[in-house]
Design goal:
- With 148 residues, the protein is an alpha+beta fold.
- The protein contains three helices and five strands, in the order αααβββββ.
- The protein has a five-stranded mixed beta barrel.
- β4 and β5 form a beta hairpin.
- The mean pLDDT is 86.
Length: 148
Amino acid sequence: MWIFWLIIVILMVVLEAATINMVSIWFAIGALAAMIADLFTAEFIWQLVIFLVVSGLGLWIFISVFKPRLKKKGNQPVSTNADRIIGQEALVISDIVPLEEKGQIKVLGQVWSALSEDENLEIPRGTKVRVVRLDSIRAVVRPCEEEK
């Protein structure tokens, strides 16, 4: 019977390796415990009980103890220093055309894709603009003469 449990362990480890989430490792651990019980001549019904209890206990421990801690770490924003361009004056180096979602600015020596804050306003090359916010990886800008 230990060969049956070994096959279950191998299948669950392969399934776990094929997924990105911890899905089947609990069953591999439970099958390993059942295999050890078989080596100590436990009856099949006890092996099955050990498999279910160890698998369930492992899953419960992960869900109640480790998963909340992992979730908290994953929600922390990653600082990129990109927000340092907000409020900076920039120069349009490629026409900003809202309908085509194209345009570029140069700010703090870097070239950024840019969008107009006013979705209907085209901003021609050579115009001085101010960065008002970031929208994903694009700078949202308004012409400097509008600020006055």
